Amino acid sequence: MAKELFTKEQQQQIVAAVKEAELNTSGEIKVHIDNKCKEDVLDRAAFIFDKLEMQKTELRNGVLIYLAVADKKLAILGDAGINQKVADNFWDSTRDFMINKFKDGQFTEGLAGGIKLAGEQLKQHFPYQSDDVNELSDDISFGE
């Protein structure tokens, strides 16, 4: 199971990073971790995005960080509201940061740092609003 790839403390670090990142933006960040990804990583991320109903945020500003640990696959997928406002390479620096950490075996640090970077980038286009509601759970979702 993918859930066993991270200790409870590491999972708490990742969730804390999501909460911290969302303090600065109305955007919603979700992390999904699989052990393996047997298909194209973007196809799998799109499937998970839909399964988690991330497209139901009011501003369509959800971001999925998808990681398949054993297969070393990563995708960052933004919803339509984000994609309408940003360049195609918007997530490249976040992805590159995470990959560099992963290469050093620092999965928790890579995820937490990537989440914080994503929050900073989202803040530019979706600043925090005083009436903001947390529309998606901050908990990590896990697959197989």
Describe this structure in words.
- The chain is of the alpha/beta class and 144 residues long.
- The chain has five helices and four strands, in the order αβαββαααβ.
- It has helices spanning 8-22, 41-51, 80-83, 92-103, 107-125; strands at residues 28-34, 62-68, 73-78, 141-142.
- The longest helix has 19 residues, at 107-125.
- The protein is globular and about 40 Å long.
Indicate the percent of residues in helices: 40-55%
Low-confidence stretches: none
The CATH topology turns out to be: Diaminopimelate Epimerase, Chain A, domain 1
Q: Class in CATH?
A: Alpha Beta
Give the SSE string.
Answer: HEHEEHHHE
The CATH level-2 architecture is identified as Roll
Give the topology, please:
Layout (H helix, E strand, L loop, with lengths): L7 H15 L5 E7 L6 H11 L10 E7 L4 E6 L1 H4 L8 H12 L3 H19 L15 E2 L2
Parallel strand pairs: 1-2, 1-4
Antiparallel strand pairs: 2-3
Helix pairs in contact: 1-5, 4-5
List key phrases describing it.
Diaminopimelate Epimerase, Chain A, domain 1, alpha/beta, 15% strand, 144 residues, 42% helix, four-stranded mixed beta sheet, 5 helices
